[in-house]
Amino acid sequence: MKKPLRTLCLKSLLATSLCSTFSAVAADTLASIKEKQSITIAYREETFPFSYLAGNKQPVGYSIDICMLLVDSLKRELKLPKLAVNYLPVTAETRLKAIAEGKADLECGSSTNSPERRNLVNFAIPHFFANVRMLVRNDTAIKNWADVKGKTLVLTTGSSTAKVLAEKAKTKDLKYTVVNAPNHQASFALLESAKADAFVMDDVLLYALRAESKKANKFTITGEVLSTQTYSIVLRKDDPNFKKFVDKELANDMINGTVTKIYDKWFKQPTPPKAINLEMPMNRILTDQLRFPTDQHLE
Q: Is residue 6 very low, low, confident or very high in pLDDT (cuts 50, 70, 90)?
C-alpha cells in the first residue's frame, strides 16, 4: 500500500530538518547557557493551563512541562546536571521583547506563531493548535459573528486576535466596538460585568476561563472558527542552531509519546490548585503533529 503523500513529506521533513547533531559552542544561546550554567524561562502568570502560578507560586502548566523537557535535554547536551533554572514573568505585551532582548532564553506560554512575530523572534515547532472563537453570556443573542454588529467586543492587549477579527470584519462588513484589557482575566471580568458583549480569543483559553468561573454555566463558547492558531515556544531570532536543537528534542518527545502524556495531564485530568478538569480531547491537527512533527505554519 502506498503511503499518503502527507506522511512521506512529513517523514522527509523530520529526517532532514530535525535529526541533526549539535555542538554546544556552535549556537550562541547554547554557548551562553553553558557559560552561565543557567537558563532563563519567560512565563505567563495567568494563562491556565499553559503557564500560570500554582499554590506554591511556582510556574506550572502544559507549556512549562514541555520546556522542562528541554531543560533536561540541555543538561544532557551541555553536561550540566545542575543547570539552574531562572524564571522571568512576562505579559502578552512584554513576552516577545524579553526574548528579543536576551532577558530570557525560552518563552513558555501560549504564544501564537505568526509572520509578523517572526520578524522579531523565532519559534519552535508547534506544540498546540487552538481555534479563535468567542465567549458570550447566555443572556445575549449572540450565536455567530453576524450577531456582533453594534456590540462591544473585548480583546486582550498584545494578543494576535485583533488582526484575525479585523480581517473577518472586512469580509462580513461588521461594525462593532473594541475594548482592550491587560490580561485574559481582566477581559473575562469585563464580559462577566456586562461591560463587553463577547470576549474573542483562542478557544482553549476561553474554555479554561469558563471552567475557573463560579458561574461557568452562564457562559457559552460560540461562533464559527475564525482561524487556527499555532502555539510554539518562543526563541531568539537568527540562532538557527538553537532552534535545531530545540526542534529535534521536541520532535523526539512528541514521537515517543511523552508530550501526549503531558497533554493528558493538563487537559484530561484535574489540575492544580482547584482540581479543574477541562475534559478537552486532543484535536486532529495536534494528533497529527505528535505523530509527524513539522514546522509548517497555519497562517
A: very low
Q: What is the pLDDT of residues 134-157, one digit of tens each?
A: 999 999 999 999 999 999 999 999
Residue 61: CB atoms within 10 A of its CB come to: 25
Q: Which residues contact 121 (CB under 8 A, 6 or more apart)?
A: 96, 99, 100, 234, 235, 236, 237
> Which residues contact residue 35 at a Cβ distance below 8 angstroms, ignoring those fewer than 6 apart?
none
CATH number of 17-127+232-291: 3.40.190.10
Give the residue among 160, 146, 76 at the shortest CA–CA distance from 113: 160
Pairing assessment for the beta strands 152-156 and 177-181 based on DSSP bridges? parallel
Residues 6 or more apart in contact with residue 66 via CB below 8 angstroms: 108, 127, 233, 250, 253, 259, 262
SS3 at position 272: coil
Write the CA distances from 81 to 36, 46, 76, 85, integer angstroms: 13, 30, 7, 12
Distance in angstroms between the alpha carbons of the first and the last residue of the chain: 33
Question: The C-alpha cell of 45 is what?
Answer: 502568570
The neighbouring-strand residues paired with 52 are: 46, 60
Tens digits of residue pLDDT in 239-268 = 999 999 999 999 999 999 999 999 999 999
**Assigned fold of 131-228:** D-Maltodextrin-Binding Protein; domain 2 (3.40.190)
C-alpha cell at 127: 506544540
